[in-house]
Amino acid sequence: MKYQTATGTIDEIEILQNAILRVTVDNFSQRKSRETLIDEHKKLDNLCDSKKYVVHNINKQENLTLNIQLRISISNLQVDNVPTERFLLCRVISRFVKIYALLALVEDPEGNVERLALYNWTKIPKQGQSNTKSIDQSFLPIGTLLVINNISYKFATGNITIIRSDNPDDVILIDHNNKLFDDDKVVKWSTNEKKVEIKNADYFRRLGNDYFTSNNYITAINNYSNGIKLEPKNVTLFTNRAEAYLPAYRKGKALCGLNRYKEATNILQNLYQRMKGNTSIKQITKHAVMLSYENENGKYDYLRIIDEFHERSKIKKDSKGNDVWIYEEGPRLDHANFLHENIKIDLIEGKGRGWIAKCDIPEHTLLMVSKALIVVFTNEVLGTIISKTSNDETSQIHVHPCAEELATRIAQKIFAEPYYCPEVYRLYDGLNLSTNERIEIITNNIVSFTIIANALKHNVFGLVYSEFLKTTLTGVGLWTLPSYFNHACIDENVNQFFLGDLLFLRTNRPISKGEELIINYRDASFCYEERSSYLKSINIDCQCRICKLERSESQEIKLRMTQLLKTYDESIKPKLLKSHNVDLSLIKELEDVITELRSLRKEHSDLGFNTIELISTLAYTYRESENNRKALSILKELLQSTRDLN
């Protein structure tokens, strides 16, 4: 099933397939051994679809004649490069499982192994249809020889590669007695002969390191232990195993990830007392103490965090020319969540749930610091940084892939860590699920893409960094607690500020007891049509002062405002900002536009949001013409009017 979001269409089942692959497959890019791939594939058995389907007929050809010169081996496949007029000769070495596609492992005559995904082989049966079967060991069983035309080689998700076939007619089953195999000089299956593979201590060390890097600590320990059996005095293997085997160390790190900072600090401090000299434990203990302090007191070293953000935002070009992080996690910052004790979620009349003040709260009070559950940056999906200054059309094109990747990662997180189900599934999603239905889904840790997609539609945040940070990074993310703040285009009493994947929320004026705490999702600098279209897509009928005014204004006034703003955007602004010598007639024209815009709302002078940018441009122009006194006067007026607007 496909879901329409505010930014594009997302296919439910393929997202779930990608999430399952990420959970069951170690996501490191090195080519893996046959044994490793088989072990990973076995993990899919418990997650596959066992329902019965109408399955496409298998294309069998006993006396197939092939031009062996057109055969391509797995080792010669290149990602996103379709081998035109070439075919893959392969042998099935695992059972097929159905998730979205039919997935199995295949090997070529040289012994190279890769995942195979067959698409469009099954259909949901009609009521009463009898010619159905499930995908089990009997479907293209182990040992089946296949010729596959028109294949593509893709990254299914992350670094997980897959051979993809979209047309069942391109898959041909051939007989083992085909004359092609009579002459070993033509096709010889190398895996028919026994290979003696030397598995020394260094082999197990490298294999253990691969599993350790992908957070599969148990398998890493097993491999280090196998190496120690061969070399009992190998200090490196003992050190690596100790690093992977310290349960308290892992538990301390995990508790930090669950925001249980005080427990983590206690465990790690006790561990460090017993293992003094271990720099890793010392470092994470110190970090856990900092997290606990941030979480309890809402005190953050902002200058340090800003420096950390800039350092971890650094990118480099990979071999394909893509923008990749120098640091593996990029600008995902390891700092604690914080929630002010004097705010709570409550029911708001006409709105549903929202944040309210439990008592009077002063201006500039930090209410919340929230680390994203998941955040996706544009370069991670598109291979390049998409600047927030890009035009609207370009931005819309690039948001959809990020939204799809965000949905995949959230599904993956819930698969791997089911305790996140309540955090996601209790968000507003616009679905008419009963309380019992929702409780059942949460209790059984069901990965429901219907809920995930709709929760994202209504709660996703676009990453917009403050200009003073001087960054072009963009992306999307899900911050669960901030999602409960309701919207107003103006008169919001809470400001939001992003640093990396951290969202800081602070009051911008004194708050009274019982008052709702409000942010804006689209402020009044956006035109009414754009704001209202977006808000309607997430089921918000905004009743703020500016929306009510703009709905009540006559068509004649709306048309004239549009004409004036178009004149500014297309004629005045480009000339003023590009010209080195300021044309005084343009200044006069800009002042006339501002004056007329104000006159059109003379009875609502406190709602003149559409003049803010124009006045800023006017001040800039006077400064460029070296009339600093006039520029300063305009800026003071703008500052005062902005305060009045809010």
Describe what you observe in this structure:
Strands 4, 5, 6, 7, 8, 10, 11, 12 and 13 form a nine-stranded mixed beta sheet that branches. The protein folds into four domains: 12-174, OB fold (Dihydrolipoamide Acetyltransferase, E2P); 201-297, Serine Threonine Protein Phosphatase 5, Tetratricopeptide repeat; 302-552, SET domain (Beta-clip-like, Beta Complex); 555-645. By secondary structure, it is of the alpha+beta class. It contains 20 helices and 26 strands. The longest helix is centred in the middle third of the chain and has 25 residues, at 392-416. Strand 6 and strand 7 (102-107) form a beta hairpin. The chain starts with a strand and ends with a helix. Helix 3 (201-213) packs parallel to helix 5 (235-245), helix 7 runs antiparallel to helix 8 and helix 17 packs antiparallel against helix 18.
